[in-house]
TrEMBL record:
Residue spans crossing the bilayer: 77-95, 107-127, 172-189, 235-256, 268-289, 309-327, 347-366, 378-400, 432-452, 492-518, 538-558
UniProt-recorded name of the protein: Lipase (Class 3)
UniProt cross-references to InterPro entries, sorted A to Z: AB_hydrolase_fold
Region (Disordered) location: 752-803
Protein keywords: Membrane, Transmembrane, Transmembrane helix
Domain of life (superkingdom): Bacteria
Source taxonomy: Bacteria, Bacillati, Actinomycetota, Actinomycetes, Kitasatosporales
Organism this protein belongs to: Streptomyces jeddahensis
Length: 803
């Protein structure tokens, strides 16, 4: 009977894999999908629906392969440059759980979006610093530097004989092409990646007011389709970038025109341009603040006038600023630096204030519904936003420092070199990197001590887990050490909190030092003793060297990943974790792969159960379990009750539940447990990523199985004549518990033996229902005791879902 056919949908985890490895068969065929993401079967199982009698008591294995969404062609390596945007986007989703606090939730989202806007302005301002200030203003305006860089000769007054391009305004106008092109590139990437990754229509359904998954927004019809917000933010951020370039070009000329004796017409035009730029900036901020995501429906409506005229108007202002700066001013000479300290100092100050305000709002939200499992007591979002700002500062400062050193040749910018170099603030920011690294080294030392202590403490536990085995000190230490290192994941909130707090304090100190002293750290400390001055100069030199080295390593890693598939896969793992969430705070962040993967899975589950009437087990490993849960939330309640969920190595509670409590908190996971037919979760104490989901629902079977043994055997046995490896996060199918739990889930789903669910009006359920469910679980275990049935493969093979 077709209704008795079962499907096991395997979803791999981080790092990706191949369908051949997942299905443990060299011959596979694509059932549905494309080269980016698709569902595969073994060739022998391609027509399984037409042969239901061959699969009686055995599931049809399918593999959903989505690794090309994050680690496909070499261009993905360029996404490394978008890392700060991705991190600030994560902060948006880290808000604490809130009920009946809509105003605070909206304020939280608005503050994160504003922080994302400052990162765009910071990136474009850094490009302006390199192209306009260091290159066109300082180097081209200095004879010695221009002579060393022959390609700048036509811009130098002395080298070119005061040619047409040698006037400072025209040099700045020409150099503005570079940051404007960067802004256009960001717009193009955002638009292109939306079309390639995030334009998939989610499974159409209407929200059910009685659906228990309303406890999480992931079940809403429009959650995985944020087209309108991304388009609006893309327009605003593009306009912000173009306005930043226009300000860098136009205000420099306007300052010269305000000097006494200047042409009155140019002075008026300059003031009008400045006022127009202020108005444009106000419009951009208003657009960013105005509205967040629309999730209760699939929002197809686009603000076409806004997304067309806002960047277009900013482009017109840029063209006017270029024409205004290019006006002939024979008496204008470029000396010193452009006023970058005020620009970068203002950006840094605004970012610090936004992070502090975000922390206040997050604290209020957490106090309204406190949960001790929430990371950093609800302050995870502000801490991550602070790290995003710091990362953006390091990247932009590294570019400026490196270009300044390169243009100055053998000299040192600002200290006997041919040019003054980057703004003083960037030097102060570089000087705080060594003390920050010292703090991180101390934190790492503290974690090492904790790991060593836990390893020694777990030795008796390992001995009790393997009774009757001959003592092997080295083997015991390896197992205990693996467990202790895996537990370090639970210390990540402490590390993030310390790093963010120290970064905020040191950044405030650097800003205060740059604004009060007006000198680089070494010069500012000369009046306070030789030791202090020497320490400041050492920190300054070491910080500048480290920030330049970090930038070089960053670019080198990206270039290697562009050419090397294995390195690209490593970067893909980073995107697997960081780009699960839609782009809600920054439109230039790397694209959200889940906006393709979740609709794929939900469409597959809904259409298969509807056309076959069969039962389905979705089996997710690691990040695949997160995708499986998100897809299950997108199903209608009727379909969700016909789906069983098997997760292993799952970060659903350990990482997502703690860091994203508003969407994966206890209420959300409990509702998922109640809504799916059944759910079992496997984990190991040696797994640094997966863990228990900690869901306890009265009247329903337990979700978490006791921690699996790892390794399976302590010493050599008849079943394991060679030493059994410590598997940690991988190869959960090697444990017999995997086949046993899968058989139990299939047994519960059989139409002839329906599983009892808790009464809808009494969530706690009845004792009789609980006993019946437990009895069916035992029956399922007996059914799965045989080899062929336990593996769930008509050919005696077991499907794999490696991560």
């Amino acid at each position: 009977m077709p209704g008795e056919t079962a499907l096991e949908l395997l979803v791999h985890g981080v790092g990706g894999t191949t369908p051949e490895a997942m299905l443990d068969d060299p011959g596979t065929v694509r059932v549905t999908g494309d080269e980016t993401a698709a569902v595969y079967r073994r060739i022998d199982d391609a027509d399984a629906e037409q042969r239901p009698e061959d699969y009686r008591g055995k599931p049809v294995p399918e593999a959903y392969v989505w690794s090309n969404l994050t680690s496909g062609n070499g261009s993905r390596a360029l996404w490394l440059l978008l890392l700060p945007f991705m991190v600030v986007n994560l902060a948006h989703w880290m808000r604490p759980t809130a009920r009946n606090h809509t105003r605070h939730v909206r304020l939280y989202g608005m503050l994160v979006r504003l922080a994302g806007l400052t990162l765009t302005v910071l990136l474009v301002a850094a490009a302006c610093e390199v192209a306009l200030d260091l290159t066109a203003w300082q180097c081209a305006g200095t004879r010695a530097c221009a002579e060393d860089r022959s390609w700048l000769g036509f811009l130098s007054p002395e080298v070119s004989g005061h040619g047409w391009w040698s006037q400072p305004g025209r040099r700045l106008a020409l150099a503005a092409v570079a940051p404007a092109a960067l802004t256009g590139l960001l717009w193009y990437l955002s638009h292109r990646t939306w079309s390639a990754y995030e334009s998939q229509q989610p499974l159409p359904h209407q929200p059910d007011p009685e659906d228990d998954t309303s406890r999480t927004a992931l079940g809403r019809p429009g959650f995985w389709y944020g087209r309108r917000l991304v388009a609006r933010l893309r327009a605003a951020h593009t306009a912000a970038g173009l306005l930043t370039v226009a300000a860098a070009v136009g205000t420099s000329a306007a300052r010269f025109d305000r000097q006494p004796g200047g042409p009155a017409l140019l002075d008026v035009l300059g003031r009008a341009l400045d006022a127009t730029l202020v108005v444009g900036a106000g419009v951009v901020v208003w657009v960013v603040c105005r509205r967040g995501r629309t999730e209760h429906r699939t929002d197809e409506h686009l603000d076409k006038a806004l997304i067309r005229w806002l960047p277009g108007g900013a482009l017109v202002l840029l063209v006017l600023a270029v024409l205004y700066a290019g006006w002939s001013r024979p008496g204008w000479r470029s000396t010193g630096r452009l006023p970058g300290d005020a620009t970068f100092g203002g950006i840094t100050l605004v970012q610090g204030l936004l992070v502090i305000a975000l922390a206040v709002v997050a604290h209020l939200l957490f106090q309204a519904a406190p949960d001790q499992r929430t990371a950093m007591r609800g302050l995870g979002g502000p801490a991550v936003a602070m790290l995003a700002c710091a990362l953006g500062g390091v990247m932009t400062g590294g570019v400026a420092q490196r270009v300044g050193d390169w243009l100055d040749g053998a000299g040192t910018p600002g200290a006997g070199g041919t040019i003054d170099g980057p703004p003083v603030l960037l030097t102060w920011q570089a000087s705080v990197i060594p003390p920050l690294l010292v703090v991180l080294a101390l934190v790492c030392g503290w974690l090492a001590v904790l790991t060593w202590r836990r390893t020694r403490r777990d030795i008796p536990t390992v001995t009790r887990d393997y009774p009757g085995e001959p003592a092997d000190t080295a083997r015991t230490l390896r197992i205990a050490g693996s467990r202790a290192r895996a537990a370090l994941t639970d210390r990540v909130p402490v590390v993030v909190g310390i790093t963010s707090a120290v970064t905020l304090l040191l950044g405030a100190g650097a800003l205060a030092g740059a604004w009060t002293a007006g000198k680089v750290p070494g010069e500012a400390a000369k009046g306070h003793g030789a030791f202090l001055a020497g320490t400041a100069e050492t920190a300054q030199a070491l910080g500048s060297w480290l920030i330049s080295l970090g930038f070089i390593l960053f670019v080198t890693w990206g270039r290697r990943a562009y050419r090397d598939a294995s390195a690209r896969r490593t970067i893909g793992i980073l995107w697997d974790v960081g780009t699960f969430w839609p782009r809600a705070a920054h439109p230039f962040a790397p694209p959200c792969y889940a906006e393709r993967a979740v609709p794929d899975l939900s469409w597959r589950m809904a259409t298969w159960t509807r056309t076959t009437g069969g039962r389905l087990v979705i089996s997710g490993h690691s990040q695949g379990s997160v995708l499986a849960a998100a897809a299950a939330w997108q199903l209608t309640p009727a379909v969700r009750k016909r789906v069983a969920l098997l997760t292993y190595g799952s970060p659903l509670e350990r990482l997502y539940g703690r860091w994203f409590p508003a969407h994966f908190g206890p209420a959300a996971l409990t509702s998922l447990h109640r809504e799916v037919d059944c759910w079992r979760n496997l984990y190991r104490a040696t797994d640094p990523i997966g863990g228990p989901v900690r869901v306890h629902t009265a009247g329903a079977p337990q979700v978490d199985r006791d921690a699996l043994k790892d390794p399976l055997a302590y010493g050599r046995t008849e079943q394991h004549p060679l030493p059994a490896p410590i598997l940690g996060h991988s190869d959960y199918q090697a444990d017999p518990a995997f086949a046993e739990e899968r058989a139990r889930l299939l047994a519960r789903l059989r139409p002839g033996v329906p599983a009892q669910r808790p009464d809808a009006g009494h969530p706690e359920g009845a004792d009789g229902g609980h006993e019946a469910a437990a009895g069916q679980e035992e029956a399922g275990a007996r059914d799965g005791a045989g080899g062929g049935t336990a593996t769930g493969d008509p050919h005696g093979r077991s499907g794999k879902s490696s991560g």
